[in-house]
Amino acid sequence: MRAFVIGNAAIDETISVDGLPEPGVSILGRIASRDLGGKGTNQAVVMARGGLETILVSATGDDFRSATIREQLAEEPLDLRISRLAGISTDFSMVLTTPDGENSIVTTTEAAEALPLEAALAALSEASSGDFLVMQGNLGGETTETLLKAGRARGMVTAFNPSPLRPYFERLWPFIDIAFLNESESLSLAGSTGGKAAEALHAKGVRQVVLTAGTDGAMLSTKGGDFIHVPAVKAKAIDTTGAGDTFMGAALASAALRGGMLDQRAISHASAASALTVARRGTRRAFPSRDELAAIFAG
User: What is the C-alpha radius of gyration for the chain, rounded to an integer number of angstroms?
Assistant: First the structure.
C-alpha cells in the first residue's frame, strides 16, 4: 500500500507575538523560525517518516523559495513529483504564534492552484486499488474534484483535509472516504461538532470522519459503526503549527502499514505523534523523526 499526496509545498515564516492582532492594530513580533511547510508536504513528510511509501505531487515557482523547498525535501524519504512553474510565485505562509502555542496562518496558493492536472493524473496512473489518495484544500476546485474522482475510479482510498476552507468543498464529499476536521472546520462545514457533525458528513457520503479537538482529544466515527473517542496525549504546547498535519499523516500511515482503514490504534498513534510536534518550534523540524514514529507505531 502506498500514499499519493497531491497538495502544496510552501515555506513557513513563523513570527512570535504576544497576542494576535485586532483589526487595524499594528503589533510587534520576532522571527521564530523559517521552515519547509505546506499542508500537503507536511502530511507527506510525516507519512514517509512513518515508513509508508509516499509519493508527493506538488508545484512551486522558479524562485529562491522553490530552491529551499527542493533542498529540504531531498532530505526526506519521499518520491518527489514537483512541477517547477515559470512566472509563478512559490507558495508561503505567514504564521503568527502566541506564547501559549496557538497560531493564526495566512497562506498563498498561487503555485498550488497552478499545479498541472496532467502531472497529477500521470502520477495517479501508477496507483493500485487500495492505495491512499491524500488531498487538502489548497488546489483549485476543478482540479481537486477531478483527482478525487480519478482516485475513486482506480479503487483508491481517498482522504481529505478541508483546509483552508473553500466554497467548493460541498460538492466533494461523495468522493471522500476519510475526512479530517478540527472544531472550526466542523462548525463551518457541518454546522456542528461531535457526533452530529460526523452524522452530517456520513449522510453526504464520507465513510470515516475524524474530528480533532486539541486538548480534548479526537473522535473517530465510522458510517454504520461506533464513535470512538481517544484522549489527547499531554504535552506542553510551544507551537501548534503542523500539529493537525502530523495527526493526519500519522493516523493514515499507521492504518496503511497495517493494511486497513482507521481504527482506535491509528488515532492513538496520531495523538502521540502530534504531542511531539506541538512541544517543538517550527514545522518540518518539529515533526517526529523516523525513530520516534517507529516507536509510536510499535505501541
Answer: 18
